[in-house]
Amino acid sequence: MNQRERLTKLLLKQSLIRLLKEKNISQISVKELCASAGINRSTFYLHYANAYDLLEHVEQEIIDNTNAYLEKIEANDNGITYILTFLDYIKKNDDLFAIMLLKSNENELFSKRLLNEVLMNIDTFLQLDVPENMKRFTYAYLVNGSLAIIQEWILENFIISSDELAQLIFSLADHSLLTFKSSET
Fold it and tell me: For the segment 120-148, what is each residue's pLDDT rounded down to a tens digit?
């Protein structure tokens, strides 16, 4: 990809994020995106089919960047370190995550995809000891619960530290899994 193409994609991404602050993706037209980015529509269509396609690319880039950031964690670190690193990444990119996890209510699938990706990777740290047929349900529970906590944290303007929130998420997940284990016996 050449420099002009990278710049065009960056301008479109920034334009989309700016517009998502004000409205849902279903209300954003290609014409509006192009006007905001200062490019013509034919250039837009060289790269994306529509606004949803651009959004999908932005979402995937966020997931890829998050994974790349989290890959820096040492294999011998624990689950809390992984969660803390993820929360610090959210806080560093607070404007982006506030829009993507809170403002865009049509975007619920992205939130769950992002957290599911993070939790699937954290499995190497947590080593969830649940039967294989229960893992899908366990992850659904952990994803939805963690997402609600993170959204509340963002809404409350990061009222508690990343460390405190990581401890809370980890202890809630750990307690839930321990309760599950004790109910099996």
Answer: 666 655 566 777 788 778 878 888 898 89
Instruction: Please name the CATH architecture into which domain 1-48 falls.
Output: Orthogonal Bundle (1.10)
Q: How would DSSP label each residue in 79-126?
A: HHHHHHHHHHHHHHTHHHHHIIIII-GGGHHHHHHHHHHHHHHHHHHH
- Structural contact between residues 122 and 169, judged by C-beta atoms closer than 8 angstroms: no
The answer to whether 48 touches 54, Cβ cutoff 8 Å, is: yes
Q: Are 103 and 20 in contact (CB under 8 A)?
A: yes
CB 177 within 8 A of CB 129: yes
CATH of domain 59-184: 1.10.357.10
* Inter-residue contact 43 to 59 (CB < 8 Å): no
SS3 22: coil
Q: Where exactly are the structural domains of the chain?
A: 1-48, 59-184
For the segment 6-60, what is each residue's pLDDT rounded down to a tens digit? 999 999 999 999 999 999 899 999 999 999 999 999 999 999 999 999 999 999 9
**Model confidence over 69-97: pLDDT tens digits?**
888 876 566 778 888 999 999 999 999 99
| Cα separation, 9 vs 71, whole angstroms | 25
> In whole angstroms, what is the distance from residue 110 CA to residue 179 CA?
29
The first and second tokens of residue 182, run together, are 């004790």
